[in-house]
Write a structure and sequence with these properties.
The chain has 593 residues and is mainly alpha-helical. It has 22 helices and six strands. Helix 19 links the parallel strand 1 and strand 2. Helix 3 runs antiparallel to helix 5.
């Protein structure tokens, strides 16, 4: 018989589902339940979870190693670039030295220039690596990947390790406690604390501490001894938590300081010599404070040691004054005070570096200016410097300059006059000046001190003679003599003219003009001096006769024949000596200008 639904719709009939006859209760009981296809689920799950964590750690370790190597490459590049720049500066000084020798230094200059070209090419290679997009992109990508992995690791922690979810559990236990349940609750929390310590989940310690404090409050009226025991447990945990927080803070600060210092060390070569020296003391003092005063974790200790090594390597490459005590592990100090002491010197060191840089530029300009001088002027300047050098060599052989203040004044003026003639670039003069290092104090001698220090003179070990005083004895003389000599013209004949001294006399007394004519042993400006005297343009003549030739008496006779006051100064040629000469003419009435 045809199915009426098929006849109506014209559809193909579906095959009928074969019905499984229902099993009887007896058969179900006999068969029992089927076994799981995964036998030993807990063991397999634990094994796979451990494998997953291990795989993640291996991947993270690989990323960390790659990132560390990339960072080390960048730091190495910074260090090598700083080293190349320092080597180039030293070669540049050699090149200028060979250039000053003219044809005698031609071969050396060419060899130095070849090395300079090689170093410049090497520097460009290093810069190309430093600026490579691949290196920058790799570092940024690795850092982003590590950050994502850390965030993911935090989000994958078990709920049991989340402190916020443990607090309600403790509250529930506390709510159930009655006197008979205290032992049970205490044992439960003890067991939980043991697991926390075993798995190093120390973030649960505050929750456990809160439990003991709350339990002590609950037992205070029911069980005083139990309340005291619970309170003692709470106080012990509070102290431990505080210690752990402090230690974690210190370790984080030490790790951060070590990394920051290592990063800064790579660019240390860009700073001045004095700042480099002071900054190294500050860094080493900070590191030694963490190392000596705190119990650091092993990983942090390794970071600190790596930073010590980085500083020590740079110390050997850069111009650092001697060995730094803080690098000696046996050296001890109050490190907070040590760091404060050197931090107070930092700004002064930067100022000194700026002054040194300006001085180097000034020396370079002087060198270029001498090169532009005519042959005759250069010969005169070199002759004057050579004459001063010979006089200093003669004085150094005796002890008169140590015993006689006037001779010391003469020596100081000769030293400064020689510096004005470019003596800081003359090895002969600097060799003669070494004996007089105890006199080279004060701002005027800074350029000479620096040149001598570069040639091995340690001014820290030298006992200075006649240390510079804060009050100037010349100021009283300026005030006393100024009203009588303001607007007048004074001719100074003899000695070594020093523009700084001449300008100070002229400005300090308000003179119309102070003219200084050189008359020093064989070097003589007698004719222009006598011409100025005869012209009537001079109100007073001061003769500095200590090292002048015998013909200086002719200048005196010329002045007297013209009716011009003459004063003889037989000691010194500095500001004080000249002012004293003027004071001896103080009672004479100056001629109107």
């Amino acid at each position: 018989m045809t199915d009426p639904s098929v006849a109506f719709s014209g559809a193909v009939p579906l095959p009928r589902r074969v019905e499984t006859p229902p099993r009887t209760l007896r058969s179900l009981l006999d068969e029992g339940l089927p076994n799981s296809p995964v036998s030993g689920f807990e063991g397999i799950h634990g094994s796979l979870q451990e494998r997953l964590l291990r795989s993640r750690r291996e991947r993270d370790d690989q990323l960390t190693i790659l990132l560390r190597r990339a960072d080390e490459l960048v730091r190495d590049l910074h260090g090598r670039l700083a080293m190349v720049e320092a080597q180039l500066r030293r070669f540049e000084r050699l090149r200028r030295g060979f250039e000053e020798l003219g044809e005698f230094g031609a071969d050396g200059r060419r060899e130095v220039e070849a090395h300079i070209e090689d170093l410049r090419a090497y520097r460009e290679e290093l810069r190309a690596i430093q600026q490579a997009p691949a290196l920058r992109e790799a570092r940024e990508g690795l850092r982003e990947s590590l950050e994502r992995d850390r965030e993911s690791a935090v989000s994958r922690l078990d709920h049991e390790s989340v402190r916020e979810e443990m607090d309600p559990v403790v509250d529930e236990i506390l709510a159930m406690i009655e006197p008979p349940d205290v032992l049970w609750a205490s044992r439960a929390v003890d067991r939980f604390e043991s697991e926390v310590r075993e798995w190093r989940r120390f973030h649960h310690l505050p929750t456990i501490c809160r439990f003991w404090n709350a339990l002590a409050a609950r037992l205070e009226g029911m069980d005083p001894s139990g309340a005291e025991a619970a309170s003692e447990r709470g106080r012990a945990l509070e102290q431990e938590i505080r210690h752990r927080d402090e230690r974690r803070t210190v370790n984080e600060a030490a790790r951060r300081a070590a990394l920051e210092i290592r990063e800064a060390v790579a660019n240390l070569g860009e700073r001045g010599e004095e700042e480099i020296n002071v900054q190294m003391h500050i860094w080493l003092g900070r590191l030694r404070r963490y190392q000596d005063d705190f119990n650091l974790e092993d990983g942090v200790t390794k970071e600190v040691y790596r930073t010590f090594g980085a500083i020590n390597r740079v110390r050997k490459e850069l111009p650092v004054h001697g060995f730094i005590d803080a690098l000696n592990r046996n050296f001890r100090a109050d490190w907070d005070e040590y760091v404060r002491h050197w931090e107070m010197k930092l700004e002064a060191a930067r100022t000194q570096d700026r002054l040194d840089a300006e001085e180097d530029e000034r020396l370079e300009r002087e060198r270029e200016e001498r090169e532009r001088l005519s042959a005759e002027e250069r010969e005169r300047s070199e002759a004057r410097l050579g004459e001063i050098t010979r006089i200093l060599q003669e004085l150094a052989a005796g002890s008169e300059w140590r015993d006689d203040a006037d001779v010391r004044d003469d020596v100081k003026e000769m030293l400064l006059a020689a510096v004005d003639q470019g003596g800081c670039q003359s090895e002969d003069f600097l060799g003669a000046a070494r004996a007089f290092a105890p006199l080279a104090h004060g701002a005027d001698f800074r350029k000479l001190r620096r040149s001598l220090a570069k040639r091995g003179v340690d001014f820290d070990e030298i006992e200075l003679i006649e240390s510079e005083r804060a009050d100037s004895p010349d100021e009283e003389l300026f005030r006393e003599l100024g009203p009588d000599w303001s607007g007048k013209t004074v001719a100074i004949v003899g000695g070594l003219p020093r523009e700084q001294v001449r300008r100070r006399i002229e400005e300090g007394l308000g003179l119309k003009e102070a003219r200084w004519y050189e008359y020093y042993r064989d070097t003589c400006e007698q004719e222009p001096a006598e011409a100025a005297i005869r012209s009537g343009a001079v109100d007073l003549v001061l003769l500095l006769v200590r090292y002048a030739g015998h013909k200086i008496n002719e200048v005196r006779e010329t002045a007297r024949s013209c009716g011009i006051e003459v004063r003889v100064i037989d000691r010194g040629c500095g500001v004080t000596s000249i002012l004293r000469g003027l004071k001896s003419a103080h009672l004479a009435v100056p001629r109107p200008s």
